[in-house]
Write a structure and sequence with these properties.
The chain has 17 helices and 7 strands. Helix 5 (81-87) packs across helix 10 (209-225), helix 11 (230-243) crosses helix 14 (275-293) and helix 14 packs across helix 17 (325-339). The protein starts with a strand and ends with a helix. The chain has helices at 13-19, 24-31, 47-60, 66-71, 81-87, 92-102, 136-154, 174-180, 197-200, 209-225, 230-243, 250-257, 261-270, 275-293, 298-304, 310-321, 325-339, and strands spanning 4-6, 44-46, 110-116, 120-127, 163-164, 184-185, 192-196.
Length: 340
C-alpha cells in the first residue's frame, strides 16, 4: 500500500512560509516534495516528504507551532465531497464518525478513530505508517482542524474537555491554549481530542437532499475504485484498538469491520497481507513512537500493545529494530540532546 497524503494537507503552507520569511522552493527541494506540489491540492504526495517538509518548516522558521498556525488557514471543507457528506449527517457525532470511516479515501496515511469516553468521545488522530521524521506538526494540524469543526457548531467559546498529544510540550503553549483550552497533556499514549456528549449531540443543518445524494454517489464511487480499501481499514481498526489498550484479535477486528473472520483473512490474503503480519507491523510502529515521543514506561507500553510481560515486548522490539527498546530510547534521547 502506498504511504501517501493528499496535497490538501499543505493548503495555505506556501503563504504562511512566505509571511514567516522562509524559502518555499528550498524547503520543497530539501524535503523531497515535487516541484509542482502546490499546483494540484488533490494530488497524492509521498507522506515521508510531507512529514519532512513540516519538520523542516518548523525548524528553519523557528516556528514550533507551525502546524497550529497552518490550521488557522484551513478547515475541513478542504475534504470536498467528504466534508459535504459529513454535513448531511444528523449530528456532530455522526459527522465525526463519517470522517473516521472515509478519511482514508483522501489520505491513505492518516487515521481517525473514535472511542467512547466518560466525557463523551475521544477522537484519535494518527499517522498510520512507520516513518523517520517528527510528525508533531501534522498531528497538531489535524487535531486542531477537528477541534475547529466541532467549535463551528458548538460556538466560538467551546473548548474540548481535554486534549492529549504523544509528543513533548513546546516551550510556549500560548497558541495551544488559545485553540484547545487549558487542559492539554503531552507525553501521552495517543494524540486525541475529547468531545463532550453535549457537543456530539448538536444537530447539523443539512445542505439539502440533492447535495446528500451527490455526496453519497461521489463517496461510494471513490470507495468502489479503492476496492473497499480493506487493508487501510483493517490497519486503522488494529491501530485504534491497540492505542486504547483493547483486545486486538482477528475476531475483534473482523467484528469491528463487519466481516467474518474467514472473509477478513481471505481479503487480506488477496491484498498480499495477513492479520498477524499487519498487527505485528502496527505494534512495531507504535512501540517506536511511544519510546521516541513519550515517557511511558516499557511495562506500560507492553501492556498497551497486548504483551503479557515487558520481556516479550523486548524480544519483539529486537526483532523489529535490532536493538532493545531501552537502548533505542536512550540513543534517541542522546541524539536529540546533541542536536540542540
Amino acid at each position: 500500500m502506498n504511504n501517501d497524503l493528499s496535497g490538501i494537507v499543505l493548503i495555505g503552507a506556501d503563504t504562511l512560509i512566505d509571511e514567516l520569511g522562509g524559502d518555499l522552493a528550498a524547503l520543497k527541494a530539501d524535503a523531497g516534495l515535487p516541484a509542482a506540489t502546490f499546483d494540484d491540492p488533490d494530488a497524492a504526495i509521498p507522506a515521508e516528504a510531507v512529514l519532512r517538509f513540516f519538520e523542516l518548516a518548523a525548524e528553519r522558521l523557528h516556528c514550533p507551532d507551525f502546524g497550529l498556525r497552518l490550521a488557522q488557514r484551513q478547515d475541513l471543507a478542504v475534504l470536498g465531497p467528504l466534508y459535504l457528506m459529513m454535513l448531511t449527517t444528523a449530528t456532530v457525532g455522526d459527522a465525526l464518525q463519517m470522517l473516521a470511516q472515509y478519511l482514508r479515501l483522501h489520505s491513505s496515511s492518516l487515521v481517525v478513530g473514535i472511542a467512547r469516553d466518560r466525557e463523551g468521545a475521544l477522537i484519535d488522530y494518527a499517522v498510520s505508517f512507520s516513518h523517520r521524521h517528527d510528525d508533531r506538526q501534522v498531528i497538531e494540524l489535524g487535531v486542531a482542524l477537528i477541534t475547529a469543526f466541532v467549535r463551528s457548531w458548538a460556538g466560538p467559546d467551546w473548548h474540548p474537555p481535554y486534549v492529549q498529544f504523544r509528543h513533548g510540550a513546546p516551550s510556549s503553549l500560548a497558541l495551544h491554549r488559545r485553540m484547545f483550552g487549558a487542559d492539554i497533556a503531552f507525553g501521552q499514549e495517543r494524540n486525541a481530542v475529547c468531545v463532550d456528549s453535549a457537543a456530539l449531540r448538536i444537530p447539523l443543518q443539512s445542505p439539502g437532499v440533492e447535495a446528500h445524494k451527490l455526496a453519497i454517489r461521489m463517496i461510494r464511487r471513490r470507495d468502489a475504485l479503492e476496492g473497499g480499501a480493506l487493508m487501510p481499514r483493517a490497519e486503522a481498526a488494529i491501530r485504534a484498538r491497540l492505542a486504547y489498550g483493547q483486545t486486538c484479535s482477528v475476531e475483534t477486528v473482523a467484528g469491528a469491520l463487519g466481516y467474518s473472520v474467514r472473509s477478513l483473512q481471505r481479503g487480506l490474503a488477496e491484498a498480499g497481507s495477513g492479520f498477524e503480519a499487519m498487527r505485528d507491523a502496527v505494534r512495531a510502529d507504535l512501540a517506536r513512537k511511544y519510546l521516541l515521543q513519550s515517557q511511558v514506561s516499557l511495562a506500560e507500553i507492553a501492556d498497551m500493545l497486548g504483551y503479557a510481560q515487558a520481556s516479550a515486548l523486548t524480544r519483539a522490539f529486537r526483532r523489529w529494530h535490532g536493538v532493545s527498546p531501552l537502548r533505542y530510547r536512550r540513543d534517541a534521547q542522546r541524539q536529540s540532546g546533541a542536536q540542540r
